[in-house]
């Protein structure tokens, strides 16, 4: 990524590391950046900071005009995410308005999503940590709906549980759509993305 004339975007997949968390609703961000890495044709590798795995490259149509993107999966738990995000944003000289957080959202039904710029953390530990470390909430969010827990199930138990068998059939399409939204956001801007994906 030696071309310094094209701005860089930092796309952060929110999740918890390790196989025991891999299928959880809270890890949808990891699934989406994995899909984006596949589209970019590169595997994740350790960043020299030792605090995250990254993919560097261009996203979208081939050629010099394709946006420069760093995909990121932190190597820490969600509530400590902000430190590595701040470190990589500094390393790649990415301002907060070119940071994209992909995360699970309780207040949006499963199989729907919303894209926005800025806002609070709505009780989400990963977003809270990012806002605290970056000193601002003015980054983009791709909010992937997981819905509210059924009955009286505890919210923490719900987000740290696997998708239902019915949801698992739809999940690949949801991941694909969220990855599409990231591509459109970076290439065409927030307004166009909201028109297309804020179902």
From TrEMBL:
Gene3D superfamilies: Peptidyl-tRNA hydrolase
Binding, tRNA: 21, 77, 79, 125
InterPro entries: Pept_tRNA_hydro, Pept_tRNA_hydro_CS, Pept_tRNA_hydro_sf
Main location: cytoplasm
Catalysed reactions listed for this entry: an N-acyl-L-alpha-aminoacyl-tRNA + H2O = an N-acyl-L-amino acid + a tRNA + H(+)
Signal sequence coordinates: none
EC number: 3.1.1.29
Site location (Discriminates between blocked and unblocked aminoacyl-tRNA): 16
Record key words, sorted: Cytoplasm, Hydrolase, RNA-binding, tRNA-binding
Pfam families according to UniProt: Pept_tRNA_hydro
Catalytic residue positions: 26 (proton acceptor)
MF term (GO), any: peptidyl-tRNA hydrolase activity
Site (Stabilizes the basic form of H active site to accept a proton): 104
Compartment annotation: Cytoplasm
Record CDD domains: PTH
UniProt similarity note: Belongs to the PTH family.
Summary of the function given for this chain in its UniProt record: Hydrolyzes ribosome-free peptidyl-tRNAs (with 1 or more amino acids incorporated), which drop off the ribosome during protein synthesis, or as a result of ribosome stalling. Catalyzes the release of premature peptidyl moieties from peptidyl-tRNA molecules trapped in stalled 50S ribosomal subunits, and thus maintains levels of free tRNAs and 50S ribosomes.
Subunit details: Monomer.
Name by which UniProt lists this protein: Peptidyl-tRNA hydrolase
